[in-house]
Amino acid sequence: MEQSGGIQASLSGRYASALFQLARDENQLSAVEASLGSVKQALAESADLRALASSPLIGREAAGKAIAAVAASLGVDPLTTKFLGVLAENRRLGSLDAIIRDFRQLAARQRGEASAEIVSAHPLDDGQVASLKTRLKSMVGSEVAVDLKVDPSILGGLIVRLGSRQIDGSIRTKLNTLAQAMKG
Question: Domain containing 174: what range?
Answer without folding.
Answer: 113-183
